[in-house]
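## retry 2 of 3
previous attempt timed out at serialization; input unchanged, resubmitting
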Amino acid sequence: MKKTAISFLLPVLFITGIKAQSIQEGMNHLYADRFKSAESVFQKLLAANPNNMEAIYWLGQTYFDQDNNSAARQLYEKALQTNNNPPLIIAGIGHANLLENKHNEARAKFDQAITASRGRKGDDPVVLTAIGRAIVDAKNADYKWAVKLLEDAASKDPKNTETLLQLGNAYRKAGEGSGGGPAFTTYNKALEVNPAFAVASVRLAKIFESQRNWDLVLKHLNEAVARDPKFTLGYYELFWYYFSRKNFDEAENQLKKFIDSKLPEKDIQDEYLYGQLCYVRKDYDCAIQKGEAVLAQLGDKTKPRIYKLLAYAYLDKGTDYNSALKYANSYFTKEKPEDLISQDYKMKADILAKTGGTPEEVYHTYVSGVALDTVLADKIEFLKQGAEFFKTLGDSVSRNLEGNLRVEIMKLKASPSQRDVFDAGLAYYQGKNYQKSLELFTTYSQKWPDEPFGWQWIFNNNRAMDSTMEKGLAVEPAIKYLAILERDTVANKKSIISISGYLAQYYANIAKDKDKALVYLEKMLAMDPSNETVRKYIEDMKKPSKPKSSTSQKSNKTSSTKVTSKSKTTVRN
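## retry succeeded, writing output
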């Protein structure tokens, strides 16, 4: 079938005349995140020529970059109805499919676009670039295929900066650019082609951001705005750079440049950035005023981040937790599930705790939040935050929930530490869940048998479960705990006296074994020779027994020595 040659298949940067300048002008606005200005350029081109496929394609890309997938799809579908299946627009439909997680439909459209644009010199680099751009823009896409397509496009048109930009992005998405490498090289090639191509400098900054090399991040961001003093995205990134380093004065300076660089374009959403500055400066009234001003103007079109700002501001202001809960609920309703982060759930948990949420509701909020973290260290840190929250509440229900979170921390670690096991066991003990606590401290004593803490808390748990001593549950742990304590009688004096007192009481009053009771009473006296009460117990128990008679039996019933827990020497841990 004969293919009709159409101008939009040519590399964008080499189209001559006013049209090329206008398309490039719109692309420059788009690179800089000046979306309204980009829309204006492309719409003017379409007003002059409704069949300008390049303008249609880039207008759709502008919609995508504003998360308006439906507007882009409608635009592209209308173009297909009035034109003879232009490959660039077919690729745009594939882009829409991919963003809607319709991966099979997207691949079919991409293959169709490649086939339709194929000429004597092979696949068209502009269409390949459009497909690569679509793949890079999506989550969980075939980034290695994007690399292959974009490398093909770059080999055919090595000076197309859009192709080089998307190829660098594809390398990073495919895992070939986190440490620089091919992504670093490709972005620099784009700058060699066009030194004013400031977006490439921002992408270089992002490489070093992933490495936490902040000096090079700042270097490349400053180079971006030096290459193009009106490069809005550069000032936006510089705002967040200084904001994250708590240099709020310089962040505000960059924010002013960001807003000025967009003029005459204005966006009420920029009040959000000022609201963030107010919030970190603890001017919560200012943050609330900025956020609610955006909400009042935009209504249902307000971005989720505004609700999040308002929820935090009301929470930290501390006088209207119900408003904090209202905005938190709105945020969770409006934000895409895939864009939620674990700290969002912590924020909601904190608000629930202030507005009558049950400990169980707060607990499940933490559990939902930890599932979002993909980095092990972040998961552990988030669970620790939740555990500390429940520890602070202090009641038995909360301490059990603390224990549950600490056990989850243990499950995540290949080798839980002594502190991990101890904290979980103690939380359950404080929550009166003695069986779970006992299981953890039994594990502790098995892993670290020479440490006293495992036996100490095995003893404490058994003593709590057998408060009358009748079952003798705590006796064996007490003996093992005492043996470890006696390795250092100076440091452990008080504990030795306490545990010896418990065993003396058990053998004297429950087991009726006077000899064993005397062993432990004498240990107490050895530790504290001035204790006359213990000395008297020992003397009384060593007195020879009188011959039994009806009278003496009656007398012994009332005068026999009994070791009690009320003795000042029997100190509970």
